[in-house]
Amino acid sequence: MIVDILLAALVAIGAFYTIALARVAIARGQWRPTIESIGLGAITNFFDTLGIGSFAPTTAWLKLRGLVPDSYIPAILNTGHCIPTFVEALIFIKLVSVNPILLTACIAAAMAGSAFGTSAVLRVPVRFVQGTVGVALLIASVLYAMQNLDLFPNNGNALTLAPAFFALAVIAHFVLGALMAFGIGLYAPSLILLSLMGLDPKAAFPIMMGACAFLMPVTGLRFMKSDRIDLRIAIGIAVGGVPAVWVAAKMVTSLPLVTLRWGVVVVVLYAAFLLLRSAFKGETVAPVETLALP
Questions:
Q1: Which of 112, 216, 92 lies closest to 170 in space, CA to CA?
Q2: Total domain count for the chain?
Q3: Range 110-133 average pLDDT
Q4: 3-class state of residue 201 by DSSP
């Protein structure tokens, strides 16, 4: 019953969010996505569904290509990846069993945290955003390396948590929700934390994806109206991401994910270096192309 309510709410929120994004983009004249952003959304969301993640690779590409100022990155991540994450959550919440009360509590906590984080990221200086995102990329590269080296805990088999761990998981997802607004992905930290508490790693997937799917509209609805965003890129990520999620979720693949993750580690580390260097020097990097509206 709870799962059915969550799925229905997710569909309703997804429809509302999609309409809101389209209206804001049309009003700004930024409704036509770039080919590059569509491809970026397809690739990053395909591998996101397979467990590699989307925030760090997207950040690395945006930074390395100089497509937008650094301060735009958190808004583009949260706004653009929101709709593909809806699709991921609908798939995994329906297919994977987990305690519905734990699922709902972690989702609610992440949503509350994201509201706090979004207010903060829209007010802080550009250097702070650069530094935070740079540190986030360093953390992501460490998590990718840990996954490749089989250092993630994977021996849990529970579908719920003891009361003390339950409370800790809820508090942790509030913090992770706040950090999402700064472009720090929730998936890997959530998976590690829940697995350490004894939860079956497979059961962590609906919690991770459900938390992101419900919190990202909270961040996205505010970010899409801010000055620190290029909606053409955000929409392109969404347009490319949705079909890629469906393909990744349904196909049986033997892709060399370990090799791909090592490649991501190298690229992400380099992007982190560039962001942190800009933060320390106080640089505001201009995009390659002008952001003047058509």
A1: 112
A2: 1
A3: 84
A4: helix
